[in-house]
Amino acid sequence: MVVVRMALGPEALEVVGRSVRVRIPVGSTSEEVYAVPIAALRADAEGDVWVEVLLDDDSTRWVEVRVGMEASGLVEVEPLGEGLPSPAWVVVGRRANGQPRLGEHRRLP
Prior knowledge:
The chain is mainly β.
């Protein structure tokens, strides 16, 4: 359970005992970041997080990433070691025939 305390004026009595929806902005970035669909993230047994990137020759490679903020189905990632090509497609799943399902990664301001 999360308890949120707010300082409200006279309208506070209108929300006592009611369900409310609260939006709390937790941060933003002032520089460009990589963002990938949540479905593109894979974690291994050690807790390291990876994305699979489609290369120009239709092969793929795994890139280890550090995960940042998440919003609207996208997650900020920072490549560790070898970077992400830009623009690029990331694998978000596999079809029954083994072919990758793709999602675009983006550089967001």
